[in-house]
Design brief:
This protein is of the alpha/beta class. The protein contains 7 helices and 6 strands.
């Protein structure tokens, strides 16, 4: 469970733990938060920079050595940017790509052999509105990176399906939480959600667990929006 000592990642880690999975959490820059959850996941909170392919492979190898297998991967790493495209620098576009796409590529490549062995699953977080490939007023660079990730998810699903590995995406809508962007708390934005209000981190967590379960055994290459009907 990457990016998992806060927010959606932590909620997802806790949901898997409730289902009796042995969950490993990762973090890169949230040392204080990592220390807070260590007692909850003793010995299974690890620091790693997923932009470092070698370190990512070492992390996965260590987990497989310790547990004997790796059944599920959930990638919650990916920074957010809300800036009009006219004010977005090329460096920011590159950062969105590296944070959301390159980290995911490193993680999946590291985990792929173990997931083949276990006929396991991988779930990646996207964002609302990816299916329409529509223009964005403020999150173009972020949505572009997530759109690229969606293509990778579907391509991994195509490659790995014959080997029993399922790969899917969960795309959150407006999900306020302590570490979410300030705009998710905007009352007017929340009022535009067809189901009448925002979702919760637990909504995202339950979707990730379901896609990783036998109940979704014939589902791969899909993008599951968890948005309350909001299109992004």
């Amino acid at each position: 469970m990457t990016g998992s000592v806060r927010g959606l990642g932590l909620a997802t880690a806790r949901e898997f733990a409730k289902r009796k999975f042995r969950v490993y959490l990762t973090w890169r820059g949230s040392e204080a938060l990592a220390a807070q959850v260590e007692a909850e996941f003793p010995g299974r909170v690890r620091r790693v920079d997923l932009l470092d392919g070698q370190a990512t492979r070492a992390l996965v190898a260590d987990i497989v050595r310790t547990e004997g297998r790796l059944d599920h991967v959930v990638q919650c790493v990916g920074e957010y940017l809300s800036v009009p495209l006219s004010k977005t620098s090329s460096a920011q576009v590159t950062h969105m790509w590296r944070s959301n796409v390159e980290t995911s590529m490193n993680l999946f490549e590291a985990a792929r052999p173990a997931l083949r062995e276990s006929r396991g699953t991988a779930v990646f977080l996207g964002c609302a509105g990816l299916e329409g490939l529509r223009a964005r007023s403020s999150v173009a660079a972020y949505a572009a990176a997530k759109s690229a990730l969606c293509v990778l998810v579907r391509s991994w699903a195509l490659e790995e399906g014959p080997l029993g590995v399922r790969v899917n995406m969960v795309s959150p809508g407006i999900i306020p939480h302590e570490h979410a962007d300030e705009e998710t708390h905007d009352a007017e934005l929340q009022s535009s959600i067809p189901l009448g209000g925002p979702g919760t981190p637990e909504d995202i967590a339950q979707a990730c667990v379901w896609l990783s379960s036998d109940q979704a055994a014939h589902i791969t290459g899909t993008n599951l929006p968890v948005t309350g009907g909001w299109q992004g």
